[in-house]
Structure formats: C-alpha cells, structure tokens
Amino acid sequence: MNEEMRTEAVDLVVTAIERHQGNYEAAAKIVKETMDKKAGTTWHVVIGEGFGYEITHEVKNLLFMYFGGNLGVLVYKQA
C-alpha cells in the first residue's frame, strides 16, 4: 500500500475496532465495505486472536497489524 492508503486503512481499522469492541465481525465488515468503496472491490478483512494465513494478494495491497497487543488484523486485496 502506498503511505496514504496505509495510514487511512490503519485509522479505519482502529476506529472500527473501538466502535465495535468485542464484535470483530461487525468491525471487519465496516473495514471491508469502506476499503471496497475507496480502493475498488475484492478487499478481505480478518480480525481475531490466534489465526494463521496463507493468501494470494495484489502487490502492495496488504496490511497486517496488531491492535491492543494480541488482536491481529489482516486487510488485503485479492489478486
């Protein structure tokens, strides 16, 4: 992701998780729908504790971050 998109995505993830504390499904839905509108379709979002992943994604369209220490967040655009 370019710097601007990454910053927007991080802010979006933080806002969604804080707004829907404990409801990761609702937070992921907000992030996905917003990313689809801003940057085109086929974005996917995974929020949770203790998950692994193996994915195919478009180059420079992946964000993996931790929130609050143990909550993993994966945002990517499918290739």
UniProtKB/TrEMBL annotation:
One of its GO terms (cellular component) is microtubule. The keyword Transport applies. SUPFAM superfamilies: DLC. CDD domains: DLC-like_DNAL4. Keywords: Cell projection, Cilium, Cytoplasm, Cytoskeleton, Dynein, Microtubule, Motor protein, Transport. One of its GO terms (biological process) is microtubule-based process. It is found in: Cytoplasm, Cytoskeleton, Cilium axoneme. Its main location: cytoplasm. It comes from the Eukaryota. Force generating protein of respiratory cilia. Produces force towards the minus ends of microtubules. Dynein has ATPase activity. Cytoplasmic dynein consists of two catalytic heavy chains (HCs) and a number of non-catalytic subunits which present intermediate chains (ICs), light intermediate chains (LICs) and light chains (LCs). Consists of at least two heavy chains and a number of intermediate and light chains. Belongs to the dynein light chain family. This is Dynein light chain. It comes from Gonapodya prolifera (strain JEL478) (Monoblepharis prolifera).
